[in-house]
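Pilot study result, target chain (242 residues):
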Amino acid sequence: MHDDEFLRHYDASRFPRPSVAVDMTVLTVAGGHLYALLMRRDEPPQQGLWSLPGGFVGIGESLDGAAQRVLRDKTGLEGVYSEQLYTFGDPGRDPRTRIIAVAYVALVTAEQLADHTLARLRVPWEGETGGPIEALGEAGAALELAFDHGAILGTAVKRLRGKLDYAPIGFQLLPLRFTLRQLQAIHETILGRQLNKPSFRRRMLASGQLEATGALEQGTHFRPAELYRYLQRPDVERSVEP
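Predicted structure:
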């Protein structure tokens, strides 16, 4: 039997169809803390709880396309670093119906999220142990998260910690020009621990990923440090990974 004949008689209604959604974990670093962009749900289910920006995938839409659409429509962000994170498919994760969520992680500078509600992340585990994490509001109290979004946030942090040494993750959280001190602060915030300064500087300078700009930081009360740039990122726009 040829495909054309098979498809003419194929009945897709024989199988239940789960819905597919994308959830965007938008992360940044500020003041030595890791933050996530959250949105308060204004309608059921779980109205009033805090959630990641998300939406359903259209029938003719790719996952990456849906992720970029949701990111643009719900946060106004475009052209930022993002990558597919993990698929969350517990049958009871959403009370509406069987919804499979494909999570993405996007990394941006704090300035890009100046007009959004951010929650500080508190990670209760070390290294790449993994597990759910808490999101804290302005007063420092834990926010009640919708669905399994605490687990999604935890998976995003675990991914960042696991890739930090071999992928250009830290650079996406910095301005185009930055000091080695700022770069180290990003690494320490993501890892949740302090790093040896001389060792970190040697490793970064020997990595071949940095280029000295010849400029010095401005507006400091101490000796200004040299500014560097990440070689694989264009000067006029941020890196994009669909």
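One observation from the pilot: The chain is about 25% helix and 25% strand. A full batch analysis is planned for the follow-on phase.
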